[in-house]
Amino acid sequence: MENKITVSIGDRFVAGLVDYSIIYGFFFFFISQYGEPNSEGGYSITGLPVLVPIIFWGFFTIGLEKLFGATLGNLLLKIKPISLEENNKITFTQSLKRHLLDPIDMFLFGFIGIIVMKNTEKKQRLGDLWAKTIVIKS
Q: Which residue ranges does UniProt annotate as crossing the membrane (predicted)?
Protein backbone atom coordinates (compact mmCIF):
# COMPACT_ATOMS: atom_id res chain seq x y z
CA MET A 1 0.00 0.00 0.00
CA GLU A 2 1.24 3.43 -0.91
CA ASN A 3 2.22 5.58 2.09
CA LYS A 4 -1.03 7.18 3.27
CA ILE A 5 -1.28 9.37 6.34
CA THR A 6 -4.07 8.39 8.70
CA VAL A 7 -5.80 11.34 10.31
CA SER A 8 -5.96 12.35 13.94
CA ILE A 9 -8.76 11.30 16.23
CA GLY A 10 -9.53 15.02 16.69
CA ASP A 11 -10.08 15.57 12.96
CA ARG A 12 -12.34 12.53 12.79
CA PHE A 13 -14.27 13.70 15.85
CA VAL A 14 -14.84 17.18 14.37
CA ALA A 15 -15.89 15.73 11.00
CA GLY A 16 -18.37 13.42 12.74
CA LEU A 17 -19.65 16.32 14.84
CA VAL A 18 -20.31 18.37 11.69
CA ASP A 19 -22.09 15.48 9.96
CA TYR A 20 -24.23 14.40 12.89
CA SER A 21 -25.11 17.99 13.88
CA ILE A 22 -26.68 18.36 10.45
CA ILE A 23 -28.34 14.93 10.59
CA TYR A 24 -29.77 15.46 14.09
CA GLY A 25 -30.81 19.00 13.16
CA PHE A 26 -32.79 17.59 10.24
CA PHE A 27 -34.31 14.87 12.46
CA PHE A 28 -35.49 17.40 15.05
CA PHE A 29 -36.82 19.79 12.41
CA PHE A 30 -38.67 17.02 10.56
CA ILE A 31 -40.21 15.54 13.70
CA SER A 32 -41.26 18.96 15.05
CA GLN A 33 -42.85 19.93 11.73
CA TYR A 34 -44.45 16.64 10.71
CA GLY A 35 -44.79 14.72 13.97
CA GLU A 36 -47.94 14.33 16.03
CA PRO A 37 -47.92 15.59 19.63
CA ASN A 38 -47.73 12.69 22.08
CA SER A 39 -48.78 12.27 25.72
CA GLU A 40 -45.23 12.88 26.95
CA GLY A 41 -45.09 16.42 25.54
CA GLY A 42 -42.97 15.51 22.53
CA TYR A 43 -43.71 14.53 18.97
CA SER A 44 -43.96 11.15 17.26
CA ILE A 45 -43.96 10.09 13.65
CA THR A 46 -45.49 6.85 12.44
CA GLY A 47 -46.03 5.06 9.17
CA LEU A 48 -44.20 5.98 5.98
CA PRO A 49 -42.95 9.37 7.26
CA VAL A 50 -40.61 7.39 9.57
CA LEU A 51 -38.59 6.58 6.45
CA VAL A 52 -37.76 10.22 5.65
CA PRO A 53 -35.14 10.69 8.42
CA ILE A 54 -33.68 7.24 7.68
CA ILE A 55 -33.37 8.06 3.98
CA PHE A 56 -31.82 11.45 4.83
CA TRP A 57 -29.27 9.72 7.10
CA GLY A 58 -28.44 7.19 4.36
CA PHE A 59 -27.99 9.87 1.72
CA PHE A 60 -26.00 12.19 3.97
CA THR A 61 -23.56 9.46 5.00
CA ILE A 62 -23.45 6.61 2.49
CA GLY A 63 -24.71 8.62 -0.50
CA LEU A 64 -22.21 11.45 -0.09
CA GLU A 65 -19.35 8.99 0.39
CA LYS A 66 -20.31 7.28 -2.86
CA LEU A 67 -20.83 10.52 -4.80
CA PHE A 68 -17.90 12.57 -3.47
CA GLY A 69 -15.69 10.05 -1.67
CA ALA A 70 -16.41 11.68 1.70
CA THR A 71 -19.16 13.15 3.87
CA LEU A 72 -19.56 16.92 4.25
CA GLY A 73 -17.65 16.89 7.56
CA ASN A 74 -14.84 14.89 5.97
CA LEU A 75 -14.68 17.25 2.99
CA LEU A 76 -14.44 20.28 5.30
CA LEU A 77 -11.59 18.64 7.24
CA LYS A 78 -9.94 17.42 4.02
CA ILE A 79 -10.09 13.75 4.99
CA LYS A 80 -11.62 10.71 3.28
CA PRO A 81 -12.15 7.00 3.82
CA ILE A 82 -10.40 4.55 1.50
CA SER A 83 -10.50 0.80 1.09
CA LEU A 84 -7.62 -1.07 2.69
CA GLU A 85 -7.99 -3.84 0.13
CA GLU A 86 -7.92 -1.76 -3.05
CA ASN A 87 -6.31 1.44 -1.71
CA ASN A 88 -8.95 3.59 -3.39
CA LYS A 89 -12.53 4.86 -3.09
CA ILE A 90 -14.71 2.76 -0.83
CA THR A 91 -17.59 0.64 -2.14
CA PHE A 92 -21.26 1.08 -1.27
CA THR A 93 -21.05 -2.00 0.98
CA GLN A 94 -18.00 -0.65 2.80
CA SER A 95 -19.72 2.69 3.40
CA LEU A 96 -22.87 0.92 4.64
CA LYS A 97 -20.82 -1.21 7.05
CA ARG A 98 -18.93 1.85 8.34
CA HIS A 99 -22.09 3.78 9.08
CA LEU A 100 -24.23 0.94 10.43
CA LEU A 101 -21.82 0.85 13.36
CA ASP A 102 -21.88 4.64 13.93
CA PRO A 103 -24.30 4.31 16.89
CA ILE A 104 -21.87 1.96 18.67
CA ASP A 105 -18.81 4.04 17.79
CA MET A 106 -20.57 7.20 19.01
CA PHE A 107 -21.96 5.68 22.21
CA LEU A 108 -21.17 7.82 25.27
CA PHE A 109 -20.17 10.83 23.13
CA GLY A 110 -17.79 8.78 20.99
CA PHE A 111 -16.02 7.04 23.87
CA ILE A 112 -16.23 3.60 22.22
CA GLY A 113 -14.91 4.89 18.88
CA ILE A 114 -12.08 6.81 20.54
CA ILE A 115 -10.98 3.80 22.60
CA VAL A 116 -11.02 1.56 19.52
CA MET A 117 -9.11 4.14 17.42
CA LYS A 118 -6.48 4.58 20.15
CA ASN A 119 -5.93 0.82 20.18
CA THR A 120 -5.64 0.14 16.45
CA GLU A 121 -2.52 0.80 14.42
CA LYS A 122 -4.40 2.66 11.67
CA LYS A 123 -6.76 4.58 14.00
CA GLN A 124 -9.81 2.62 12.83
CA ARG A 125 -13.27 2.69 14.42
CA LEU A 126 -15.35 -0.50 14.68
CA GLY A 127 -17.07 0.42 11.41
CA ASP A 128 -13.70 0.80 9.69
CA LEU A 129 -12.51 -2.55 11.00
CA TRP A 130 -15.66 -4.31 9.75
CA ALA A 131 -15.55 -2.54 6.36
CA LYS A 132 -11.77 -2.84 5.98
CA THR A 133 -11.30 0.91 5.51
CA ILE A 134 -9.08 3.66 6.88
CA VAL A 135 -9.46 7.44 6.88
CA ILE A 136 -6.64 9.46 5.34
CA LYS A 137 -5.85 13.08 4.48
CA SER A 138 -7.22 13.91 1.03
A: 12-34
